[in-house]
Amino acid sequence: MENLSSISFLSSLPDLPGVYQFFDSTGKIIYIGKAKNLRKRVSSYFNRSQYDSAKVRALVSRVADLKYIVVNSESDALILENILIKKHQPKYNILLRDDKTYPWIVIKNEPFPRVTTTRRYENDGSIYYGPYTSGRLLKALLDLIRQLFPIRTCELNLTQSNIASGKFKACLEYQIGNCLAPCIGNQKENDYLSNVNAIKKILEGDLNEVLRLITAEMTKAAQELKFEQAALLKERLRLLQNFQAKSSVISKGINTADIFTIHESEGFAVVNYLKVNSGVVVQSYNLQIKNIVDEPIDDIFSQAILEIKERLNLKSTTFLVNINPAYQLSNIKYHIPRQGEKLKLLKLSLRNAEAYIKELIKNEERANPQTRALKYLEQLKKDLQLPELPIVIECFDNSNLQGTNPVSACVVFKNGKPAKSEYRHFNVKTVTGPDDFASMREVVYRRYKRLIEENKNLPNLIVIDGGKGQLSSAYETLKDLHIEHIPIIGIAKRLEEIYRPGDSTPLYLDKRSMSLKLIQNIRDEAHRFGITFHRKKREKKNEASILESVPGVGKKSVIKLYTRFKSLENIKKASLEELSEEVGAKTASNIVSFFKKI
Question: How far apart are the first and last CA of the chain?
Fold first, then answer.
């Protein structure tokens, strides 16, 4: 290990794989990372004019010193990094949170091992199976095991010396036939361990092997005329076959497989591990990743696979994955399936990761809905490179039908949520025909001229439903009002491109990103609000034209009637006296006669 007293010595770093540690001014480790090339990786932190993430910028600003360790391979770098992170738990490293709230079945590391459940995974030499997200499956497995095999449930220390000393007495479990009392020497350890090995096979999903062994023992017992033992084995066989019939076969073409997938959505990242044995999923495990300084997804995938492999004591050497990890573990092969049964298993694992993320989102929203909205806005600020958090977002959408009844809608979102009381409709007044650009100029001018005159707050972000043309029209209007400092974007419908003033190259946000989803949600709400208004306006115009076909009813009469009765339906229901009060007796009589005929 070499101690570097200043970042100016970065050029002396070797072009070799290794692990680096960042220290703050107090000498505390704040970040540990791995690298295929130490010089390139570490230098990348300090040779930037700007940072994509505020957290990375904060990390770099706190680095006062660094140390590094050269290793032989990328695999060694990954393993050493994992060990050091667990030891020092630096502030800026990713956090790996597993689903420990789910129970495990554990075969204890002890003489005459007990088979029990736990919610605490420990590296105590015991063998753990799970975690089980289905309590029903867990209970079914334990019930099956206890019906098949007489396993002890006591916590006695059954060493050979303790048993030989005669210090134990058989308990009630022995009396009712649930245990063979190894505590008093009634059952030999080899016989007990053969049952434990059969239990391991069941928990690993290898029921066929257990069925074969029990069938062979039953046949042998029958041949030796041990009919009572043969009957007991036959009952065990029946129980196992019933359990196997209830197990859902996931893959008929693949006997065993180990699958890792990583999925990111709405600020969460989760790695799912599935184990398939005899075509049945026997284990599912989720690991949540908190990516503090925006490390590459393939990089954190490497760390997560290593962590799960260690926690679950996995022995497999080939894993199915949805992306290739950045760092390869020695003696491990990765395969990305493109078709067939393996691809189906990969998709199943991804569905598990997606479902777990949805669960995390629901839990967070229940705990603190405001925090969730803030995450959306922070991500949007980062993706669009906005100067401040877009607390208030306004979106404009134009609507017309073949050039008739042009209207525009403005919707307002505050803290990522609709502020419906502040929505506004606009009847386009100065534009004749289908001219979206001119319509956009008019309504944007009217909206912000009024806000300025009334000394009201302006939005942090303006969204225009449309491409470069509509955006340019709106931006020119902002310049006319001297408020062009307000960030403004346009979203084009066809490919969901994001346009910005003065930039001919559109921005393409990840289709799964919460930033794009938020923009789409706001755009769709503006479209819905505008279409609703436009439909109502068309209906009123059609209704007005119907009324104007009544003798004696002109535009002024239509206005009077709608001012009082609000809708054509109410006008139809109005009495002759009520109508006469507005348009006179003769015209009222004409209206009543007209609607009786149609």
Answer: 95
Q: Where are the beta strands (DSSP E) in 7-145?
A: 18-23, 29-35, 65-70, 95-98, 104-107, 115-118, 127-129
319, 304 contact by CB (below 8 A): no
- Coil, helix or strand at residue 276: strand
Cβ–Cβ < 8 Å for 450, 433? no
Does residue 119 sit within a domain? Answer: yes
CB 139: neighbour CB atoms within 10 A?
12
- Name the amino acid, one letter, at 64: A
Query: Considering the domain boundaries, does residue 532 fall inside one?
Result: no
How crowded is the C-beta side of 118, counted as CA atoms within 13 Å? Answer: 14
Burial category of 125 from C-beta neighbours within 10 Å (exposed 0-12, middle 13-18, buried 19 and up): exposed
112 lies in the same domain as 240: yes
Q: CATH code at 579?
A: 1.10.150.20
pLDDT tens string 358-371: 888 877 777 776 77
Mean pLDDT estimate for the chain: 83
Task: Respond yes or no on whether the N-terminal peptide bond of residue 131 is cis (omega within 30° of 0).
Answer: yes
Contact 233, 219 (CB under 8 A): no
Distances (CA, A) of 338 to 276, 307, 346: 18, 26, 10
Strands 461-465 and 488-491: parallel
Is residue 452 situated within a structural domain? yes
pLDDT, tens digit, 9 for 90 and up, residues 162-215? 999 988 999 988 888 889 999 999 999 999 999 899 888 877 767 777 778 778
**Mean of pLDDT values over 588-593:** 82
Which is higher by pLDDT, 400 or 411?
Answer: 411
* 391-403 residue pLDDT tens: 999 999 887 554 4
SS3 content of the chain, % helix, strand, coil (to 5): 45, 20, 35
Q: Are 283 and 273 in contact (CB under 8 A)?
A: yes
Residue 187 belongs to domain spanning:
104-246
- Here the CATH number for the domain that contains residue 13 is 3.40.1440.10
3 state DSSP class of 49: coil
Is 251 a member of any domain?
Answer: no
Cβ contacts of residue 597 below 8 Å, gap of 6+? none
pLDDT of residue 1: 40
